[in-house]
Specification:
This protein is α/β, with parallel strands linked by helices. The protein has 14 helices and 12 strands. The protein has 2 domains: 184 residues, D-Maltodextrin-Binding Protein, domain 2 (3-Layer(aba) Sandwich), CATH 3.40.190.10; 143 residues, D-Maltodextrin-Binding Protein, domain 2, CATH 3.40.190.10. 39% of the residues lie in helices and 18% in strands. Helix 11 packs across helix 14. The chain is elongated and about 65 Å long. The two termini are 33 Å apart.
Length: 353
């Protein structure tokens, strides 16, 4: 049932992205009194008054934490003088759609897959759907799900851990975080549950990235599964500090998870991180920038235009953003959810749709 709902959600996103018009009139964002609405009927979506926006990013040590500074700098150079953007860093992939839906943040980073989950209220969003979620810009980067163990642990295959019931110390991000959710799903694909790990004499700890890196350095953990970009700060630090094993998930398991949960796949190039000597085929996601229907067409248009017309600044800001192109920014697969009408208006004006 979840699979059918998610497939329906992705299909809906693709259909609405194709059908939403670029009409001139839009609603003023209710969360910012200084946000100017689009000029109804004229097609002019330019802003003349400053805006005050909260952007949901993620915690220190993540790529989105770095993105927060990069994106806010670009936007403030292109929004009306006096505009303010507050980057919220006590959030993350799972919580960002909820913050945007309830108006705590006006826009922020998401994943194409988890945004679709949030829109439909499935997987980690059961009972807390975000029906007002809309996309601004998609296909910003590629996130790779990597499985790493300390070389000292001697663990090179999780199938052996399952078969031998090896005691293993597992670190994940906080429960409910997208990294933790997928860690659990990956372990289950190997036939391993958190309860199994503890029954075998191992342990499962849920912490922030800084604590996880320190635990590896101190020899207090063995395994970490997480979504990373090229240049991911925490994994980069970890890989140059201790010796790691980068594990390849079997292709049949990758195919199974893509079928069940609609993941994509991508190859993490050899040499992306210290000690990673071979290409690794990974489950993957891409970052999108999302808002809600409460954001005015004018603000959505301005944000989308600023990012798509300043790609050099994005590319220079972070290695993971180097492949971003405006031509792929409105691709339904990279958004996972319908486009905001203001964003659609920009893409149509620029001849990208």
């Amino acid at each position: 049932m979840k699979k059918r709902l998610l497939a329906l959600g992705l299909s809906l996103a693709m259909s609405l992205t194709a059908l939403v018009g670029c009409g001139g009139g839009g609603d003023t964002a209710s969360t910012s009194s200084s946000t100017q609405s689009a000029v109804a009927g004229s097609g002019d979506l330019s802003l003349t008054e400053p805006v005050n926006l909260n952007m949901a990013a993620a915690k220190m040590g993540t790529s989105w934490y770095s993105y927060g500074s990069i994106f806010s700098d670009i936007l403030l150079q292109n929004l009306p003088s006096g505009s303010q953007i507050t980057v919220e860093t006590n959030s993350g992939a799972t919580s960002n759609p909820l913050l945007i839906e309830n108006g705590s943040s006006q826009f922020g980073f998401g994943y194409n897959l988890s945004s679709a989950w949030a829109l439909e209220g499935v997987e980690v969003y059961e009972g807390r759907a975000c029906p007002d979620l809309l996309g601004l810009v998609g296909n910003l980067d590629t996130f790779y799900y990597v499985i790493v163990t300390s070389a000292e642990s001697g663990i090179t295959d999780l199938a052996d851990v399952a078969a031998n019931q090896t005691p293993i110390r597992v670190s994940t991000t906080e429960v409910g975080n997208m990294g933790e959710v997928v860690s659990r799903l990956v372990l289950e694909e190997y036939g391993i549950t958190y309860e199994d790990i503890e029954a075998w004499g191992g342990q499962v700890a849920h912490n922030d990235l800084t604590t996880i890196v320190d635990a590896f350095k101190d020899g207090q953990t063995d395994l970490f599964i997480h979504n990373v970009t090229l240049g991911h700060a925490s994994l980069t630090e970890l890989a140059v500090t201790i010796d790691l094993n980068f594990l390849q998930m079997p292709q049949d398991m990758i195919d199974s998870m893509c079928e069940k949960y609609n993941f994509s796949t991508a190859v993490l190039p050899a040499g992306s991180f210290n000690g990673q000597d071979e290409d690794i085929n990974c489950l993957s996601l891409t970052t999108n920038l999302v808002a809600s229907s409460a954001m005015s067409d004018g603000v959505a248009y301005a944000i989308t235009k600023a990012l798509c017309e300043n790609t050099e600044a994005l590319h220079a800001g972070h290695v993971a953003l180097e492949d971003f192109t405006p031509e792929r920014a409105c691709d339904p697969a990279g958004l996972g959810i319908p486009l905001h009408p203001g964003a659609q208006a920009y893409f149509e004006e620029a001849g990208l749709m």
